[in-house]
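User: My instructor asked us to take a sequence, write out its structure as tokens, and then describe one feature of it. I'm not sure where to start. Here is the sequence I was given:
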Amino acid sequence: MTPGSNLLAQALTVIAPQLAQYWAATGREVNTVGIYVTSFAEPVDVYGSIQPVPRALYEKYGLDFNKNYVTFYTTRAIDDVFRGRSGDQLTFGGKRWQVESSNDWQFVDGWNGLLCIEVTADD
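Assistant: Let's start with the prediction itself. The structure tokens for your sequence are:
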């Protein structure tokens, strides 16, 4: 395989792509109790491959064993959490997921691997 061949697009012709709803973060405002609240654009459909992060990798990656993580591979450019701004979110499997980090191969090979953490009302 060579850079630019878009390995993910090729893989999604062999395995069934999975549908997620993509919520782009549009900004943050401080609410009445001083907490930043992120606003999101209306969701749009995005396809990719959703893979659970093996628990054996949690310690290596410094992840919290009390949380659930997945990697979402997609050909769409999606933003992760960055200093001073919230990342985008995804909905799939009946759950909402915060994009924590991105292995961005968008400019090299046309895809992203997004580490996502399940968010709940308590988060």
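For the description part of your assignment, you could build on this observation: The radius of gyration is 15 Å. Try explaining in your own words what that tells you about the chain.
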